[in-house]
Design brief:
This protein has eleven helices and 18 strands. The protein is α/β, with parallel strands linked by helices and 355 residues long. Strands 3, 4, 5, 9, 10, 17 and 18 form a seven-stranded mixed beta sheet that branches. The chain has a six-stranded parallel beta sheet with strand order 13-12-11-14-15-16, with helices on both faces. The chain has a three-stranded antiparallel beta sheet with strand order 6-7-8.
Length: 355
């Protein structure tokens, strides 16, 4: 089969013929229908972000929509011929005293004990076929009616939705999305509208994308374009939010904590901030404010296992409208062009490889 292999960080992926994966216990082999690229893919593969990459060479990309071609004898609930979403997050049961060993398949180790897990599950979605743990597969019934590139957006939809669930967002509340003009942020705004929030304050720097977000719902979506002055930005966010119930922070790899602090300062007493993004600096949190106003600060990494199925049902029912998003598609032979393109994308643009 054909696959894109990384032999050295910072070097282009090599397209080559490799043996098909061997089926093993508790696994399935899927024919890859689509793979979604995060905007920071090139920074992962170059080593710039310092991710704990699997043993070289390996097939990158942690996002897969696949068609099941074979299942292990011990696998229950997954059948040949099903279209599935492949969750890249796998880890051993979290027993008391056990060393963490979680990984994102084809992407990174998440703990000091991840080496063994990465040796077992190192290859991801830039290939015609992939081996995947059965426990990480979510069947997508009747998915033939949807395009593979649309289904690929589940990769980021799940992360954004997981953060909203972690913050216990409810209909009728006010949400601030910090980093709304990025890939995770724009999807989070669409999801929050679908969930029935009364107001979304979209915070970001890109004026064009902010204007597009307003057009999703001119009554419920308000925007604040960050100018770089902490005092002024904080005041404008607080005025527009008028007491936010939740902040979803999906900023990328920035090194300035002030935008995050400005959004936290706009929370009402009892409000919640959820960190989902890739901020590369520690956040100096206001201790007294958090204590007196009983604010909640939470982290959200990936999502619960039920999330992909819930989102898929919302897509099929037409509740979750993804038509505003422009999806750039590339063949497997064009994977290096796809990696380069992904770094240039704004919020409503997404990048997908169709092997």
């Amino acid at each position: 089969m054909k696959a894109a292999r990384l032999y050295q960080p910072g070097k282009p992926l090599q397209i080559e013929q490799i043996p098909e994966p061997n089926l093993k216990a508790s696994s399935a082999i899927v024919r890859v229908l689509s793979s979604h690229l995060p905007p920071f893919t090139s920074q992962v593969l170059s080593g710039e972000l310092g991710y704990a990459l699997p043993p070289l060479p390996f097939t990158p990309c942690e996002s897969v929509i696949g068609l099941v071609e074979a299942v292990g004898d011990d696998v229950v609930g997954i059948k040949v011929g099903q279209i599935v979403f492949c969750d890249p997050h796998i880890y051993s049961p979290r027993h008391f005293g056990a060393e963490p060993d979680g990984i994102l398949i084809g992407w990174t180790g998440l703990a000091t004990g991840s080496h063994r897990m990465q040796s077992l599950w190192k290859d991801g979605g830039f290939a015609q076929k992939a081996l995947w743990p059965a426990e990480c597969l979510t069947p997508l019934p009747d998915a033939e009616s949807m395009k593979p590139e649309q289904l690929a957006l589940l990769n980021y939809l799940t992360v954004s939705y997981g953060g909203l669930l972690r913050g216990e967002l409810h209909a009728g509340q006010t949400l601030i999305v910090n980093g709304a003009t990025g890939a995770l942020g724009a999807l989070a705004v669409v999801l929050a509208l679908t969930m029935g929030v009364s107001k979304i304050v979209a915070v970001g720097r890109d004026k064009e994308t902010l204007e597009k977000l307003v057009q999703l719902d001119i009554k419920r979506v308000k925007t604040v374009q960050m100018q770089g002055n902490f005092s002024d930005d904080s005041q404008r966010i607080a005025e527009v939010a008028d007491g936010a119930d939740m902040v979803l922070d999906v900023l990328g790899g920035v090194t300035n904590p002030e935008p995050t602090i400005a959004c936290i300062n706009a929370l009402r007493p009892g409000g919640t901030a959820v960190f989902v993004g890739g901020v590369q600096v520690d956040i100096p949190l206001p201790y007294s404010k958090i204590m007196v106003e009983e604010l909640n600060i939470r982290g959200s990494f990936m999502y619960p296992k039920h999330v992909p199925g819930e989102l898929y049902r919302m897509m099929v029912a037409g509740i979750l409208d993804l038509t505003p998003f422009q999806i750039h598609t590339f063949s497997l032979d064009e994977v290096n062009e796809a990696v380069a393109k992904s770094r240039t994308l704004k919020g409503f643009e997404q990048c997908v490889v169709i092997p």
